[in-house]
Predict the structure.
Amino acid sequence: MRMSNMNNFSIDPTDLESSVLREQRRAEELAYLYQFALDLMTQPDGNVRMIYESVPAAMLTVLRCDGAVILLTDDANSTLHAVAALGEAYSDQHAFAELIAEKRWASVKSGAMGSVLGAPLHSRDVLLGVLIAYRASADTPFSDNEIQLITVLAGVTGAVLSNARLRQRLDERLSLLQTVLESSPTGLAIIEQSRLLMANPAALHALGLNESAFDQLLLIDGPDGLLLERLLEGLPPSAIASFEYRIERERRPRFLRIEVVPFGSDKLLAQVNDVTLLREIESRREEAVASTSHDLKTPLAVMNLGLSSLLSYYEQMPDEDRRTMIEETLEQVGEMKTLISSLLDHSRPHKPHAADVPPQVADPAFYVGQVVHELSAFARYHGITLRWHASSDGSLHLHCLPDQLKTIVRNLITNAIK
């Protein structure tokens, strides 16, 4: 075996010093890049402007280049456009960026115009853009170590930029959702552990609350019991889907239709609809139908008696009596039309509640006289003669609703005749 001559082996001190300096420089670059990546990833999500400002500055520091550019794709991922730049610009940077985007890996190009280095920005296999570093001197091309550095920087930037974009889109959707909830006529409230976590304006209005009720126990009590107890019945395993709840108010009660949707073990979403107007319309319609059914009995009885008499004694009756009987029947038809029209008016949603209609100053004798005239024929067919003598000189006035006054007088006289 032949041994090598150790006397022929030597180390150039200059080469050794250069190697140590390179390793020291590389360690410093990696330490700077690590700290920069840490700072970048701990910034608040959605701060895109900070990314645009800090990344080119980091490229100038780490890569010792004369210019740095960030180019991003548009929404259609079809073209690249510069969003941030520092230092000198490479004249053909867009063409080079397109090449990097197509190849999807870092590349170097050197020539008379200088040296240019590019790396793709991507996240989850989605191309976001390209980083470009430029040196004006062709004598200092980018090294393999610098290619690795820009690749690492591009990876960190792509991840942070993707998160920032996701946060921006999330904020936009949350803002849109908040606008929809605030303008929705349907009340929505979230209950967590017996406390009102949040509610939109429609729910607060329906429940008679304000934002000070947030994070407080829901202590609404009414004739139907504690609202909180009714809501908690919607939690598993009972899962009562919906119920109606009444809240007493100074002027009139409020009726709520509440749909309960549980989510999680201790949370539920309550959809609150104020159905007070619907319940008032239903009640008003029932009252109007009952009242009109009662009031229609009188004109129908008059018409029945009149027409029966006319049919039985038509030949024996003088023309004047027949004409009177027909006129009285037509008057009763007119009264029925008035009653039916009033019933239809009470059935309409826009019809004001009786309590909301202001009373009028009226002479009661005038309206009593009208009712006596309307019921004269009805009384006559029962063998009764109605006479009305107003003792008032017109100085007596009442604050009343004329239609209701006539209804009361009509019911009293009709019941007395029967």
